[in-house]
Write a structure and sequence with these properties.
The protein is of the alpha/beta class and about 450 residues long. The protein has 14 helices and 14 strands. It binds guanosine-5'-diphosphate (GDP) and 2-acetamido-2-deoxy-beta-D-glucopyranose (NAG) (3 copies). One 2-acetamido-2-deoxy-beta-D-glucopyranose (NAG) binds next to strand 6 and helix 6.
Length: about 450
């Protein structure tokens, strides 16, 4: 429990610091921030402690993802790992999923902000996640495990020979590592690696596994071949979904409730700038995700157009399916007119120069633009979530082609009960011939 207390203390200090320094959002929000986190932290700790003392053979599944992958693809990999844990526990074994701390993400570029070793509780509601599968934060794992040691790291990779005979089949085999290991042995014979910035973490053993198939293909390996207590799957994105958009997928997705303080800040922005409240917009949210079962078309949404305009690496490749700023603004204006909306909320990762140009082309656009003090508190991940939350409550939404950031907004709107016509829309490239619109994935309850 000790480090938990420290964690809470740290959050308090951060908040107080922010209050005195900045004209922060709303005091109420900050208080809620602490309450939400403290709540989550205690219950997580409680659950895990209870299970350790009772179960004889509690085992830990850790995982990490290819470093360049962004926040929202990582959220998708979580769903695959949760699915694997469900398979493992179905067979009567006691497994807990250790949440990989957030940090050093390629897109989190706000300068001079400490963004390392961020626990999941800062972005998601841990109590909500735990209703779905047993999860704990990494620091809790260290405490329960008696130190920063991971028994076995399995580096997942494809097959060196590719698909044999061009035929797809599900398989998993112990194989020599194809790429150079990003782990190295220290003087004591332990393996050192990135481990989310926890320099003191060590692995006792690292081996490579070629895997081709859905996440649960790893279950027999983890049950039979490997008997140690803690196993980490690195490059976990190698594994596919057990059943994309099936009930299990949606259960996990629905359990990924954003942390309350972030939702409150988003709601406050909606109320202040967009005349949008849950009651008037029919988007009433239940804290308990298992009770959220809104009928499609029941949500009305706030009187604004929600836009996710992905830039940066999406335009550097001169992709055909991404519009110019001019093209995007033209589409935004036409949608505002068509849906009789005079407000537009824009979420974007556009850089300084592009933002200036956007402001010139679309002076009335509203953005969530935190002060540096608020950014320190929320971090790039929190700001991204607030952007997504506001877009998720718009009467009409348009996103960017194949952006997982946009996909996660689609899902959030599906959960809230929006008519699919208002959700599954994307910008087309200026000269894109066949501009296929995103697929509607219905929730399976
Ligand atoms: N706040 C904010 N961040 C964004 C936005 N678009 C992209 N980003 C950042 O860029 C990252 C994009 O990576 P990812 O989430 O994997 O989505 P994808 O690359 O669009 O599929 C996000 O995680 C954010 O950090 C946006 O509209 N608002
Ligand atoms: C697991 O063990 C079985 C039986 O000993 C063996 O055939 C198989 O190759 C092993 N799989 C891996 C991935 O090590
Ligand atoms: C490392 O793990 C592999 C695969 O589980 C195992 O075959 C090997 O014996 C282990 N090495 C050590 C030194 O424990
Ligand atoms: C805000 O929305 C309500 C309906 O929900 C409407 O009656 C009111 O006129 C709106 N206020 C403004 C300032 O647009």
């Amino acid at each position: 429990m000790a480090h938990r207390a420290v964690h809470i203390l740290r959050l308090w200090t951060a908040s107080l610091y922010s209050c005195t320094l900045s004209v922060s959002f709303v005091l109420v929000t900050l208080v809620a921030f602490n309450a939400a986190n403290a709540d989550d932290v205690f219950s997580a700790s409680h659950t895990a402690t209870a299970s350790t003392s009772m179960a004889r053979d509690l085992r830990y599944l850790l995982y990490d993802v290819n470093p360049p992958e962004g926040f929202n693809l990582r959220r998708d990999v979580y769903i695959r790992m949760a699915s694997l844990v469900k398979t493992l526990t179905k067979d009567g074994d006691d497994w807990v999923l250790v949440l990989p701390p957030w940090g050093r993400l390629y897109h989190w570029q706000s300068p001079d902000i400490y963004q390392l070793r961020i626990p999941w509780g800062e972005f998601f509601s841990l109590t909500s996640l735990q209703v779905n599968v047993p999860v704990i934060e990494y620091e809790e794992f260290i405490a329960e495990n008696g130190g920063p040691f991971i028994d076995q790291v399995l580096v997942l990779q494809n097959y060196a020979e590719g698909w044999t005979d061009g035929k797809w089949e599900e398989k998993v085999d112990k194989r020599p590592c194809i790429e150079k290991l990003i782990y190295s042995k220290d003087k004591q014979g332990f393996y050192r690696g990135w481990f989310w910035g926890y320099e003191e973490t060590r692995a006792r053993n690292v081996t490579c596994i070629s895997a081709q198939g859905h996440a649960s293909i790893m279950a027999p390996v983890l049950q039979k071949n490997i008997t140690v207590t803690s196993v980490m799957l690195d490059r976990a994105e190698t594994l596919l979904h057990d059943h994309y958009a099936g009930k299990d997928y949606w259960d996990t997705r629905r359990s990924m409730v954003f942390a309350k303080h972030l939702r409150l800040i988003g709601d406050n922005f909606r109320a202040t700038h967009l005349n949008s409240t849950d009651i008037s917009d029919s988007t009433v949210y239940s804290e308990d995700w298992t009770r959220m079962k809104a009928k499609l078309g029941s949500a009305k949404g706030g009187p604004y157009l929600g836009v996710h305009l992905r830039r940066k690496d999406f335009i550097w490749g001169h992709r055909e399916d991404v519009p110019s700023l001019k093209g995007a603004v033209k589409k935004i204006r036409s949608l505002m007119k068509k849906h009789k909306l005079d407000k537009v909320f824009l979420a974007t990762d556009a850089d300084g120069g592009e933002l200036k140009e956007l402001k010139r082309l679309l002076p009335e656009m509203l953005r969530f633009d935190p002060s540096i003090e608020d950014l320190e508190l929320l971090k790039d991940g929190g700001v991204a979530i607030i952007d997504q939350w506001i877009c998720a409550h718009a009467r009409f939404f348009i996103g960017t082609s194949v952006s997982t950031f946009s996909f996660r907004i689609h899902e959030e709107r599906e959960i809230l009960g929006f008519d699919p016509k208002t959700t599954y829309n994307r910008f087309c490239g200026d000269s894109e011939k066949e501009c296929e619109q995103p697929t509607h994935w219905k929730i399976v309850y």
